[in-house]
Amino acid sequence: MSGSGGSSSGNSNNTVLLAAAAAAAASSIATLLLTRRRAPAAASSAAGDEAAPSPRPDLSSAAKRTSFIVNDFPDEERALRAAGADGVIVFPHNHEEKMRMRIAARMAVEEENVTPRRSVTVRVPGTSANMGPGYDCLGMAVDLWSEITVERADKFEILPTGEGASEMPRDASNFMCVGLAAAFAAAGKDVPTLRYKVANRIPYARGLGSSSAAIIAGIIAGLVLAGHTLPCWGSEALLQIAAEIEGHPDNVAPVIYGGIQLGIHNGKRWVTERIPTPPGLQMVMFIPDSIGKTSTARGVLAPDVTRGDAAFNIGRAAFLVNALCQGNLDNLRFGVEDRLHQPQRGAALYPHLYPMIEAAHSAGASCAYLSGAGPTVMAITSGASGDIFTQREKERTDQTVAKALLAVAEVYGVKGKVIVSQVSHEGAQVVRVDPPFSKDNILYSRDLAGCDPRHVSVFCAELQHSL
Q1: Helix, strand or coil for residue 456?
Q2: In Å, what is the CA distance from 347 to each residue of 79, 341, 351, 417?
């Protein structure tokens, strides 16, 4: 009995000690977090004074801890590591902290992309912004691609082909040139004399993100030609450059990352998150022959909105994101409703807008809305599976919806065409580069698939010889 009682007492004491240790650890972590969060308020309380530095923990006692929160106090983190304090606490959602740790662990400067290139080819997708209520913050990449090749040359030239080639600026005001100049500025280098070859498949000035695609293509081409890379985790530096030019992230974010993107400014920088895309969606878009200028479309909007309209759009934007996350296609119709820009633009510029939206719904579309600033009307349908040209047409509604849009266009005398596409889950891509990124026995598939076959054969022969 006494042995049993002694064991019970020991277990009890151990339990108390463990509980006390856990409480002490939790208290220590909470103290650090609360101290860090309160520091800005304390600093700002003294008017006219410089912001006080965040309180630093006592290393003599902190070094005794076996864990700490990553990036609470970077200097102390390094000191604690040196003192042998491992077991860093990183929660599952701390993706950026994990990436910083992996980068720090390498303790080396990456050199693989510091070589200036002679030429580069970049593919960029079109986009559909706003998606109804997500004014200037929500956008989707569409499987319509333009391709630009930028190469060092003796004379500046822009050689466009395809959609809107005759309307495209051929001087430094072209958004490709603007984006490229921003990339060279980020690299701290002067822009060399370049030739731009453009195969444009994104309808120009139709509300499908042609200007944002040009900006991103220019930035990426500039970075590659300059031999310069940018940080992504914790900064999204490429997005910052693009959004600074464009003014908002609704188009540039999906061009960069693909998919459906939600972007906001957190007071310090632009941040984005990908929204899940339900499977089987198709984009059925009516594209008028006439262009639509964003400046004109913004000009018809009032500078202020009522509280009721603001509340309406807040609810619809939340409803839309929830419908996409849940894969509830029936709710998309209500999620894309809007009061901030579609009614005004429909009344002043696009009389075909709401009749087309209603016709699309009646023909079986999940939803329809004005793409970007217009004039394109975007309808989303479902039912696609695999390659649609091997699927029975009656399993989908894209043809029915397309015919309904064209019928309305005829009634309103709007000439145009319908393109059926899908969401692009991939963003901008470097598809060819000279010299290639592959080296030694590490090959990138794009170097093999995108380069001139003659260059590939020489490159592979050199690689085989080195092996």
Answers
A1: helix
A2: 64, 10, 6, 22
Q: What angle is formed at CA 223 by the lines to CA 272 and CA 266, rounded to 5 degrees?
A: 20
Exposed e or buried b per residue across 286-301, where buried means at least 16 C-beta atoms within 10 angstroms of its C-beta: bbbeebbeeeebeeee
pLDDT of residue 85: 47
Per-residue pLDDT band for 432 (boundaries 50, 70, 90) equals very high
For the chain, percent of residues with pLDDT exceeding 90: 62
Q: What is the pLDDT of residues 129-178, one digit of tens each?
A: 999 999 999 999 999 999 999 999 999 999 999 998 998 999 999 999 99
Question: pLDDT digits over 440-464, tens only?
Answer: 788 888 776 544 444 444 444 443 4
**Closest to 424 measured CA to CA, from 245, 208, 272:** 208
- CA distances to 247, 264, 319, 341 from 305, rounded to whole Å, are 20, 20, 20, 10
d(CA 204, CA 201): 8
Interatomic CA distance for residues 427 and 16, integer angstroms: 55
Q: Residue 196: exposed, middle, or buried by beta-carbon count in 10 A (0-12, 13-18, 19+)?
A: buried
pTM of the model: 0.75
Give the model's pLDDT for residue 360: 98
Q: Are strands 157-162 and 194-200 parallel, antiparallel or unpaired?
A: parallel
Secondary structure E strands in 181-333: 194-200, 260-265, 270-275, 282-288
- What are 149's two structure tokens? 């090749």
First to last CA, the chain: 75
**Cβ-Cβ contacts under 8 Å for 247 (sequence gap 6 or more):** none
Max avg pLDDT among 94-98, 103-107, 334-338? 334-338
Question: What are the residues facing 14 on neighbouring strands?
Answer: none
Of residues 245, 298, 242, 243, the one with CA closest to residue 265? 243
Of the candidates 71, 79, 77, the one whose C-alpha atom is nearest the C-alpha of residue 33 is 71
* Contact indicator for 90, 48 with CB cutoff of 8 Å: no
Contact present, 377 and 371 (Cβ < 8 Å) = yes
Structure tokens, 326:
């849940």
